[in-house]
């Protein structure tokens, strides 16, 4: 099977023996049958020419993602009030929902009171904050982020709704 089109990259998704494989291909140099020789089913997904951010990712989140995507320690979890955002920005799984729209009760408790010590004991290493979440916290809750065990890893310094902060809290156990 030859890859159609010229010059654009392609993502090849292939299902073989119950396992899913994918490869990023330059269609001018590779053929799909070299990658997915044993695949009875494969799909080509053309890369879009102008990437678009999803509805829950802002330009500020995209900037953080460029810096931190897949750079946090393996197995690290990021607590974010929008769990899909944290997973998308950092490339790390997060224990937030039992099903797509059903958050775990303990996750909801941590979002309501993200005390770094409680967050660390729950297995999270980082907290990704935006002003909407921080503004809902009491002054006492906000003060917990000034503990010596909390390390501010990133602050883009932009005021208002586009501000993003990444705190490391795993030393707060």
Write up what this structure looks like.
With 173 residues, the chain is α+β, with helices and mostly antiparallel strands. It has two domains: 9-46; 59-172, no CATH class. Helix content is 27%, strand content 25%. The chain has seven helices and nine strands; from the N terminus they run ββαβαβαββααβααββ. The protein has helices at 32-35, 59-68, 83-90, 105-112, 116-121, 131-135, 139-143; strands at 9-16, 19-26, 41-46, 78-80, 97-99, 102-103, 126-129, 151-155, 165-168. The strands form three sheets. Strands 4-7-9-8 form a four-stranded mixed beta sheet, sandwiched between helices. Strand 5 and strand 6 (102-103) form a beta hairpin. It is globular. The chain starts with 8 loop residues before the first strand and ends in a 5-residue tail after the last strand. Mean pLDDT is 80; it is low at 1-10, 24-35 and 41-47.
Which helices and strands, and how do they pair?
Blueprint (H helix, E strand, L loop, with lengths): L8 E8 L2 E8 L5 H4 L5 E6 L12 H10 L9 E3 L2 H8 L6 E3 L2 E2 L1 H8 L3 H6 L4 E4 L1 H5 L3 H5 L7 E5 L9 E4 L5
What is this structure, in a nutshell?
The protein has 173 residues and is an alpha+beta fold. The chain has two domains: 38 residues; 114 residues, no CATH class.
